[in-house]
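Quick one, probably user error.
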């Protein structure tokens, strides 16, 4: 599939406290692995634009944007929520992260791409309509989904494979039946969301220690049948890779071959359903070696290499 990687140097400028796991070197690890694997030349490389305030306000209350703007320091760091800090460049980085998804939507719907991987930070899936939290300032995928809906897309699926529940995304789309939200996550675990499911929200909790066989079984039993029924016109992936067994931010035991299986299944399903494309956005993943290897595996599968 025609696939792009979308990023921007500004995403490296967002800094938090020393030794914070959500750090600029995450993006370096991805870039280094892409170069080492020799697949960077198979990708279209695009720079993320800045999301506008109007784009952000499609998914968030105005008070959230105002709070981030008012807290943004002229120097040093400011505590945003106890887990997330702001530096002077954080708002620009967050707008680039959100803008990557907007550009991906435009390129896919314009027929220029079949898939995109947004290699950006800060991540987004814990930010709900009113609050930033869990390393996330704005909900990047929610902003991109709203942009796609404004372009006339009527059925959108969001598949969240981060080890942590995508509580912010669920909050934003809880009452929106045009969006199928599926989240697979370790439970009990942060953010300790009450598990709720309905006809367009599919939550798939996994206990610590579960590995690839459990992952595959859960998706084959619950996600893929629902996707075939829902027939999404566009698929988004909240691509967290912290369910990898080497990542000590979680307790699941996935490996690169599990992410390969998931992506290959998704590509095949998207083709079968005549889906317009797949847009994957980086969420978690805090062991840099495992993150880089997993992202390269994911992208190679999007490229069908």
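Nope, works fine. Designed sequence:
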């Amino acid at each position: 599939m025609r696939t792009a990687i979308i990023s921007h140097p500004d995403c490296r400028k967002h800094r938090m406290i020393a030794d914070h796991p959500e750090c600029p070197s995450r993006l370096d690890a991805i870039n280094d692995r892409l170069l080492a694997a020799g697949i960077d030349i198979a990708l279209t490389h695009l720079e993320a634009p800045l999301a506008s305030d109007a784009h952000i306000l499609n998914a968030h209350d105005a008070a959230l944007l105002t709070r981030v703007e008012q807290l943004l320091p002229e120097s040093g760091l400011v505590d945003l929520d106890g887990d997330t800090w702001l530096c002077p460049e954080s708002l620009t980085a967050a707008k680039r992260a959100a803008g990557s998804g907007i550009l991906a939507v435009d390129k896919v719907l314009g027929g220029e791409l079949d898939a995109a991987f947004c290699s950006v930070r800060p991540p987004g899936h814990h930010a709900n309509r009113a609050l930033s939290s869990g390393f996330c300032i704005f909900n990047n995928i929610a902003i991109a989904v709203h942009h796609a809906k404004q372009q006339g897309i009527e059925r959108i699926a969001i598949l969240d494979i981060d080890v942590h529940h995508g509580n912010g995304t669920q909050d934003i789309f809880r009452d929106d039946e045009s969006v199928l939200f599926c989240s697979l996550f370790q439970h009990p675990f942060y953010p300790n969301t009450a598990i709720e499911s309905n006809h367009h929200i599919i939550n798939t909790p996994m206990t610590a220690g579960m590995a690839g066989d459990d992952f595959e079984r859960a998706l084959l039993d619950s996600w893929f049948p629902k996707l075939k029924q829902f027939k999404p016109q566009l698929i988004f992936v909240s691509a967290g890779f912290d369910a990898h067994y080497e990542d000590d931010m979680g307790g699941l035991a996935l490996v690169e071959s599990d992410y390969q299986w998931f992506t290959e299944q998704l590509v095949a399903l998207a083709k079968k359903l005549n889906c317009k494309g797949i847009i994957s956005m980086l969420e978690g993943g805090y062991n840099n070696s495992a993150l880089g290897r997993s992202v390269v595996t994911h992208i190679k599968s999007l490229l069908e290499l």
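The chain has a mean pLDDT of 98.
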